Amino acid sequence: MRHRGGSEQPVKKRRANGPKGRKVSTAGPSVADLQEQVGALTRELKEAREQQTATADVLKLISGSAFELGSVLQTVVRTAVRLCRADQATIYREENGEYRWAADYSLAPDYARIERNVRIRPGVGTLVGRVALSQ
C-alpha cells in the first residue's frame, strides 16, 4: 500500500473514468427490434432471390442455340414487370436516331398495335423521347 509523504495514511485511489455513480447501459436491442431486423432481411433475401432467378432465366434464353432477339426482349420485359410489380411495360430500341417498339407485356391490343407502328424521336413530347435526350 502506498503512503503519502512519509505519513502512515494510505492514498485513496481515484477513478479516472468520470464521476462516481455513473452507470453505462449495457442493454442490447429489444426482441421487437430484432424481429423487425429479421423481417427486413428476409424481405431483402426474397427480393435478391427473385432477381437472381430472373437473371438466370434471361441468361438461359440468351445462351440457347436458337438465339432470337425478339424472344429475349419478351423475356426481359416480362421479367421486368414481375420484378417491379408493374402492370405492363414496353421496350423501345434505337434505330437510326429514332426509337421503335421492340417488346411489350400486358398492353391493351389496340394500344400495342399503335405502339408497334410509332417512331419516336428524342424530344420533350414523349416519355421515351425525354429519356432519349438524357442519353
Could you walk me through the main structural features you see in this protein, from its secondary elements to its overall organization?
The chain has 135 residues and is of the alpha+beta class. The chain has one domain (35-133): GAF domain (Beta-Lactamase). 48% of the residues lie in helices and 13% in strands. The chain has four helices and three strands; from the N terminus they run ααββαβα. It has helices at 31-63, 69-84, 109-117, 127-133; strands spanning 89-95, 98-105, 119-120. A three-stranded antiparallel beta sheet has the order 1-2-3. Helix 1 packs antiparallel against helix 2 (69-84). The longest helix is centred in the middle third of the chain and has 33 residues, at 31-63. The radius of gyration is 33 Å and the shape is elongated.
